[in-house]
Amino acid sequence: MKGFHIYPKEIMKHFKNPKNLGKMKNADAVGEAGNLVCGDVMRIYLKIKEKDGKKIISDVKGEVFGCIVAIANTSMLTTMVKGKTLEEALKIDKEELIKRLGGREKIPPIKIHCSILALDALHEAIYNYYKKSGIPIPEKLRAEHERIQKSIQEIEKKHKEFLELERNIIDNK
Amino acid sequence: MRVYMDYAATTPVDPRVLKAMLPYFSKKFGNTMSLHSFGIEAKKALEESRATIADLMNAKTEEIIFTSSATESNNLALKGIAFANKDKGRHIIVSKIEHHCVLDSAKWLEKQGFEVTYLPVDKYGIVDLGELERSIRKDTILVSIMHANNEIGTIEPIEEIGKICREKGVYFHTDAAQSFGKIPIDVEKMNIDLLTASSHKMYGPKGAACLYVRKGVKIEPILHGGGHEFGLRSSTVNVACIVGFAEAAKICKKVMNKESERLKVLRDRLIKGCLKIENSHLNGHPTKRLPNNANFWFAFIEGESLVAQLDMYGIAASTGSACSSESLEPSHVLLAIGLKPHEAHGSLRLSIGRWTTKKEVDYVLEVLPGVVEKLRKISPYKGGW
Q1: DSSP alpha helices (H): ranges in B313-383?
Q2: Is there a single domain that holds both residue B287 and residue B241?
Q3: Are B230 and B174 in the same domain?
Q4: What is the pLDDT of residues B175-233, one digit of tens each?
Q5: pLDDT computed for residue A173 by the predictor
Q6: Do the domain assignments include residue B385?
Q7: B285: domain range?
Q8: Has residue B92 got a pLDDT over 80?
Q9: Banded model confidence at residue A2, pLDDT cuts 50, 70, 90
Q10: For residue B254, how many other CB atoms are within 10 A of its CB?
Q11: Would you call B42 helix, strand, or coil by DSSP?
């Protein structure tokens, strides 16, 4: 177990006082990312209202099973997207999120992956919303969706292989 | 309130130990190999320390080799035995729940042409003796099975293991880093050929440990040089820390029975209290466990967050979650006892010690349910997996 001082203060601030976390009832869209095997799963709930012909995120909630960085980035992302249009929310890129969490230099390299997982969950939520509402899905978002789903399958496959390898070792000896 | 519940990671140095060590830094600082009075003074302290450590495990004085850490002792045991006995055979047996320094030494030996069997354990972490017997072959040269597990506290049946190894004519090494000084060890009665013990897990300083090597056991050194420690571990001897290690052993011998009875009561209070939390489970054996170890898994939450939350309340604990490891793999021990990765992610180890009070245990029991609840509230799995 590494000491918590390895995390930037921005991360610890959100971990200690997370914003907008918990379940949302009657959400207009839900997205999930991560995998139980590797230990981080995030879910993003969106409430979407129409204003001047634009879709606006009027409320957002996140749920997290995961480590300090996972909780912090979900909390951070919810504060960044509240009140934004879906198009604006989609413009938030991973570098911006990493920067808001303290920056690449301060986050341990092994934690970079889970520090952007909430963004995947958000993209999944918006993808699901577009799909459900019959709104054309931008090509970039569709590609994102395919990447996220593929990575989930890969983790599951890797884990299965790992277990099989272990079983073989036991059976053979 | 600051509550230390991570005694299995390391212990504070007992003030009596520190007092015994102090003269050996600036006054009796001699090199044990020097021929003058300064050297003799240091050498005398070293040999007295050796006798004290030997006494606590019923070994002969000259069978104790001082090292710098349990990791070094375990490396010496595995690699030293492997290289000295490779003409007899190249097969080694270890359990799947050994400390990384044993497992990684074994894996390294595999790369050098040795063959390793990793013995499975049951749901409590206990090695299957039948499986051990079946695994021993003509070319088996070493069995290494820990005395007590560092994560889940399970105590292995090492007396029976020792008996099996003795009957089959195979060397038996046990890593007793977590148990030495806490529960009785007798290398004669338990048929142990090599044993690792560590100072900083028993209220001594870091930087001192030992490997017991039974007289007549064929072993090669891994550090070559001045021929210290009967030629088995060259390096200028760290006299101050070894004196501290011995003083710690002296104290442990004196207080062991009383201390372990006291800790068992506190441990069981901790276990009973934690299991009152919904969807909580005990890891390891209910009774065959170290007097100071409690280990749980809490469903639907992740351990690093749990440990960090506890830290905010001043409570120091540890977890086997992947998030807290370098490799992002959950604890191999928890997987070996049959936990699923997501279950192992929610693990919490609370290890108590000499200065743990009932008040501290009750404080943890007061804080923990709220912290678990808080994390479950934000977990997508609060209603089930």
Answers
A1: 332-336, 341-344, 358-377
A2: no
A3: yes
A4: 999 999 999 999 999 999 999 999 999 999 999 999 999 999 999 999 999 999 999 99
A5: 42
A6: no
A7: 3-9+256-377
A8: yes
A9: very low
A10: 10
A11: helix
Do B295 and B269 fall into the same domain?
Answer: yes
Rounded to a whole number of angstroms, the distance between the first and last alpha carbons of chain B is 35
Here the ipTM equals: 0.87
Are B311 and B358 members of one domain?
yes
The CATH number of residue B281's host domain is 3.90.1150.10
Measured between beta carbons, the chain A residues lying within 8 angstroms of B302 are: 39-40, 65-67, 70
Residue A3 confidence (pLDDT): 59
Residue with token string 């830094």: B25
Domains detected in chain A: 4-172 (3.90.1010.10)
Which stretch of A150-159, B30-39, B58-67, B111-120 has the lowest confidence by average pLDDT? A150-159
* Same domain? B241 vs B282: no
Edge-to-edge order in the sheet of strand B194-198? B64-67, B209-213, B194-198, B171-175, B140-144, B91-95, B115-119
Q: How far is CA B138 from the centre of its chain?
A: 30
Q: Determine the residue of chain B that is closest to A167 in CA distance.
A: B120
B interface with A, Cβ–Cβ below 8 Å:
117-118, 120, 135, 300-302, 304-305, 307-308, 311-312, 318-319, 321-324, 326, 328, 330, 341-342, 345, 377-382, 385
Report the distance separating Cα B283 and Cα B295, nearest Å.
Answer: 5
Hey, how many other C-beta atoms are within 10 angstroms of the C-beta on A96? 12
DSSP assignment of A54-75 equals: EEEEEEEEEEEES-HHHHHHHH
Helices B303-312 and A9-16, interaxial angle, to 10°? Answer: 90
The set of residues, in sequence order, having a beta carbon less than 8 Å from that of B287 and lying 6+ positions away, is none
Residues B35 and B61 in one domain: yes
Q: What is the pTM of this model?
A: 0.93
Option in A2, A39, A110 nearest B345 (CB) = A39
